[in-house]
Amino acid sequence: MAGEGEEDLPRDAKIVKSLLKSMGVEDYEPRVVHQFLEIWYRYVVEVLTDAQVYSEHATKPTIDCDDVKLAIQSKVSFSFSQPPPREVLLELAASRNKIPLPKSIAGPGIPLPPEQDTLLSPNYQLVIPKKSASTEPEETEDDEEMTDPAQSSSQEQQTSELPSQTPQRVSFPLSRRTK
């Protein structure tokens, strides 16, 4: 896979293949080279675009080496974060290790923490809709004949007096805990 058609490849693809070989990667898909080239070209375009913005800001007619260095430096500082120093990590570990672990449930099998300390404790939410006063379906017909105007206004008053249909949420654990 890695040595097929070396002569027909562009110079950049040959460089990517030699980098892979120098890192000890011998067997890879041919499209890996194309993916690395795409990432490489995208990075170069972004750096040169940033360098162009920096040179325009400095009112320079062309991009120079300082603009490219500044663009690379800004990309590295915003793209990659440095880990904290070893001393800081040791202090954080010491403060965290002062807190004892929760007691485990004794029993056969793998020791587990108490159920209230786990994220897997069962908790269910049920939606219980409030029951309405009337369960008759509303009839809406757009006929030319209107029966009694007083009757239609009394129906409107009945519907406005009904309680709102907002569901009530109830939350409880599935199993009972005995303490």
Can you characterise this structure?
The chain has a domain at 11-91: Histone, subunit A. It has five helices and two strands; from the N terminus they run H-H-H-H-E-H-E. It has helices at 11-22, 30-57, 65-79, 86-97, 149-161, and strands at residues 124-128, 168-172. Strands 1-2 form a two-stranded antiparallel sheet. Helix 1 (11-22) crosses helix 2 (30-57) and helix 2 packs across helix 3 (65-79). It is elongated, with a radius of gyration of 35 Å. It starts with 10 loop residues before the first helix and ends in a 7-residue tail after the last strand.
In summary, what is this structure?
Keywords: Nucleus, Transcription, Transcription regulation. By secondary structure, this protein is mainly alpha-helical. It has helices at 11-22, 30-57, 65-79, 86-97, 149-161; strands spanning 124-128, 168-172.
List strands and helices in order, with pairings.
Elements: H1 11-22, H2 30-57, H3 65-79, H4 86-97, E1 124-128, H5 149-161, E2 168-172
Antiparallel strand pairs: 1-2
Structural class: mainly alpha
Calculate the terminal CA-CA distance, rounded to whole Å.
65 Å
Number of strands: 2
Q: For the largest beta sheet, what order do the strands appear in spatially?
A: 1-2
* The CATH homologous superfamily of the domain at 11-91: Histone, subunit A
Q: What is the CATH topology classification name of the domain at 11-91? A: Histone, subunit A
> What characteristic shape results from the CA principal axes?
elongated
Given as residue ranges, the uncertain stretches (5+ residues, pLDDT < 50) are none
Tally of individual helices: 5
Instruction: Report Rg.
Output: 35 Å
Helix-strand pattern: HHHHEHE
